[in-house]
From TrEMBL:
Residues 58-90 are annotated as: Disordered. GO terms for molecular function: RNA binding. Keywords: mRNA processing, mRNA splicing, Repeat, Ribonucleoprotein, RNA-binding, Transit peptide. SMART domains: CRS1_YhbY. Residues 65-75 have a biased composition (Basic residues). This is CRM domain-containing protein. Pfam families: CRS1_YhbY. InterPro entries: CAF1P_plant, RNA-binding_CRM, YhbY-like_sf. GO terms for cellular component: ribonucleoprotein complex. One of its GO terms (biological process) is mRNA processing. Residues 160-258, 280-376 form the CRM domain.
Amino acid sequence: MFLLSYRLKPRRVIVHQEPFFQFYTRMRNHLFSFSKRRLPLYHRRFFNSSIPDHLYDPPFTLSQKPRKPKGKKNKNIQNGAPNIKRDPNLPFKSDLPFEFRFSYSETDPSIRPISFRESPKFSPFGPGRLDRKWTGTCAPVQHEVDRKRFEEERNRVLGAPLNEEEVAELVERYRHCDCARQINLGKEGVTHNMLDDIHNHWKKAEAVRIKCLGVPTLDMDNVCFHLEDKSGGKIIYRNINILLLYRGRNYDPKNRPVIPLMLWKPYPPIYPRLVKNVIYGLTYEETKEMRNKGLNSHPLMKLSRNGVYVNVVERVREAFKTEEVVRLDCTHVGTSDCKRMGVKLRDLVPCVPILFKDEQIILWRGNFNQEQSSDSQW
């Protein structure tokens, strides 16, 4: 037998040139890449505790941006409101020739209040923000204003009157209900801050659409007058409770009038009582009988909340030709709105409100054929 001898070749030894701790760290990360869930719990604990913390390289890098410390914001609090920067142009100086009121169409300057619910020294424009003094109901002009110069400036801004084609184009553009340039006029009527909203719309639009609802719709002529008088524009379209207010041909948004804003709604003052126990011209028994007659009568109209009341005055005038007492059903309208409507109907019809009960308005046509002073009548 011949013996076969095999020559074993020497195995090749790989010598790692990298340091031991880098090699060990790389191998450890390679083992962890499979999944930790596949390893038993004691193996995972072994890997976490066997390598020192200074040799472990996490698989993600931390953010190098230093975080800002969360400190308290510096706020200069004045009168409960934070003011970061104070406007150097304060107090505001406005050249508008009328006194500033919260509502222009729903207040009568001739009627003086008997008391105030808050001190007149608290101006709704804020302390030191207006060069006019707040009297409790308005901020009158401190110096004499040239009304003639103001009218000339207004006519210059309006320019030449629009022809029929231009009016039709503007009406077709802004009269629709989906118009973006719309202002809603509610029970407060033409307010002071609404004037600033109108001028803001006039920056990018030639006209603004105004939708009127609620008590002001009883006297739309009064609303139109104050809109034109206070804003300087012109109403080119009127349909029931929809108005289009045109800014004028020569309107420049950069030279708009200065209109300081009211920061809060002032408390309404206390006025004399609207309905007295005994109506002037009637005895106590006649007054009581008239009120019972009105409560038991059929309602002339049923009014809804925030509705359109443009035809209420004419309906009441027609009813007074045959009836002595008229009842208006104002269920769900609200007590405050009922009294506001009673005041407007008293002056527009004219008539005498004799009762406000359970959101029902009882009106008496009165003895207006006799010569009576307005103070004694009301």
